[in-house]
Design a protein that fits this description.
alpha/beta, Rossmann fold, six-stranded mixed beta sheet, two-stranded antiparallel sheet, 43% helix
């Protein structure tokens, strides 16, 4: 099995989650941060694709949106997984997940995960720091990254990836 994990990460949390996930996914896994690298590879060479992003100002990164839009037809022929890093929990996190991933991809995904999040204030610019302090009251680095959610996602993905042929 050859899998691709694509994601965007501005302050490093989604990158951290993607690399933790990579260690737990069976087979040959390639990880690409769309924020730093333009994907030149043909998606046809992959059996499965995992897409991840994080919430900034209520939305997922534009490069993740563009990747999903540009490749949706091919993605629907693959085993796909979707994950989101966000600070919201429960119903609010689920609503964010549903709002950022297209319905067609959510419905065909063999694994979905909400991994919690982090506010890495030390890596934010001045405007981000002011906004975060105003909205959430957070003034220092805060982590709510949920390792158990990452492990559960990997377990579900591996099981369904083995048992599914698209």
């Amino acid at each position: 099995m050859k899998s691709l994990i694509v994601f965007c990460s501005k302050h490093g949390t989604t990158a951290k989650a993607a690399h933790m996930l990579r260690k737990q996914i069976d087979g040959d896994v390639i990880v690409v941060n769309l924020q730093k690298t333009q994907l030149h590879s043909d998606l046809e060479i992959f059996d499965s694709v995992i897409i991840g992003g994080s919430i900034h100002a209520g939305n997922i990164q534009g490069k993740v949106k563009k990747f999903m839009k540009d490749h949706q037809e091919v993605l629907l022929t693959k085993n796909i997984g979707l994950f989101l890093c966000c600070m919201k929990e429960g119903k609010e996190a689920s609503e964010q997940f549903e709002s950022v991933f297209p319905r067609e991809l959510r419905e065909s995904a063999i694994a979905q995960g909400i991994f919690g999040g982090e506010l890495i204030v030390s890596k934010m610019n001045f405007l981000e720091k002011v906004l975060i302090k105003k909205v959430s009251g957070v003034t220092e680095d805060t982590s709510n990254l949920q390792m158990n959610s990452i492990s559960q996602f990997a377990k579900t993905f591996n099981t369904n990836n083995r048992n599914s042929s698209v």
